[in-house]
Amino acid sequence: MARELQVISNYQKPRQPKPEWLKIRLGDPANQNQVLKLIEGLNLHTVCQEARCPNIFECWSDRTATFMLGGDICTRHCGFCAVGKGQPGSLDTEEPRHVAEAVRHLNLAHTVITSVNRDDLADGGAAHWAETVREVRALNPDCKIEVLIPDFNGDEAALNTVLDARPDVLNHNTETIARLYRRVRPDAGYEQSLTLLKRAATRRDREQRRMFTKSGIMVRLGETFDEVVELMKDLRAVSCDIMTIGQYLQPYEKRLPVERYVTPAEFSSWRDIGMTLGFKHVESSPLTRSSYHARQQTEIEPSLSEPPAVAGGYSL
Questions:
Q1: Are 150 and 174 contacting, i.e. CB atoms less than 8 angstroms apart?
Q2: H or E segment at 45?
Q3: Residues 6+ apart with CB under 8 A from 187
Q4: DSSP string for 46-112
């Protein structure tokens, strides 16, 4: 409780009005309702709902969703997140099969699976993750599987448990720059997240796998333009293939405030710089989130053991 109070103590700033470019396109409510009924019927959670994603109408109208494992209560106290905090319940042993069934019913070509942090579990939920990937693969052999995993408190064995299930994309968000970690992610570590991505890329290259590594951040939590570029360099130094950059939106009053709204032109500049640095894809726009256009991001062919680029004045 003390940590939660520390995180929210300085948030009492008035909300800024949203600019025109953050208006959200509403989709087909019939498709949205069909997805919602399926999810509720299988006792599943989606990060689309729990994190109040601004793209929920667009994605659900396109019959896509990001499934969230481990319940809807997180053991961490990140200052930006809308997901509930506290002591989670026990894992649902039927959840891996239910996710696989939902993917089949929605006929997905690319599915994204994430979770709350489960620091109450010895392996952080890694075995549950791996079982879900295997169940989805068995029931949907042609579907690409992207996992958006927590840091597992730096436990390499837990990471390897997930990698053993052979996902097509290993995603782990850095969320923000190193300087802001204590404020934004008080229970996590910047270097720990980079180490996780490096370990995943190293194992991929060693085993000659066809797998992407991916990470994402939110902007205007207090970082500068150049600090984002430095973070991009750090991600390329650990062979991260794909990056997402989106505008942070305050989910409710007791979360971190928006320091400022970033213009579309700035997002375009980061995308151009990222491609110069050697990312295979950079999804950078005000409404970008980790799983936004996830399928399109992986339509390029993965290349193995490709060193980070040095070009365009942004040397690593």
A1: no
A2: strand 45-46
A3: 3, 76, 77, 78, 117, 119
A4: EHHHHTT-TTHHHHHHTT--EEEES-SEESS--TT--SEES------TTHHHHHHHHHHHHT-SEEE
Burial (Cβ within 10 Å: 0-12, 13-18, ≥19) of residue 110? buried
Alpha-carbon span 150 to 260, nearest angstrom: 27
Find, among 186, 315, 306, the residue nearest to 238 by Cα: 306
Neighbour-count burial of 183, counting CB atoms closer than 10 A to its CB (0-12 exposed, 13-18 middle, 19+ buried)? middle
Question: pTM value?
Answer: 0.80
For every residue of 185-227, DSSP letters joined together read -TT--HHHHHHHHHHHHHHHHHTT---EEEEEEEE-SS--HHH
Q: Which residue shows structure tokens 């390499």?
A: 156
> Tens-of-pLDDT digits for all 316 residues of the chain?
445 444 444 445 555 666 665 555 545 555 556 666 655 665 555 554 444 555 455 554 555 667 889 988 899 988 777 778 888 999 999 999 999 998 888 888 888 899 999 999 999 999 999 999 999 999 999 999 999 999 999 999 999 999 999 999 999 999 999 999 999 999 999 999 999 999 999 999 999 999 999 999 999 899 999 999 999 999 999 999 999 999 988 766 667 888 888 999 999 999 999 999 999 999 999 888 776 666 666 777 655 545 444 333 333 3
Report d(CA 290, CA 65) in Å as an integer. 12
Is residue 68 within 8 A of residue 95, CB to CB? The reply is: no
241: number of Cβ within 10 Å: 26
Residue appearing with tokens 């991916």: 214
Show the CA angle centred on residue 198, arms to residues 197 and 201, nearest 5°: 85
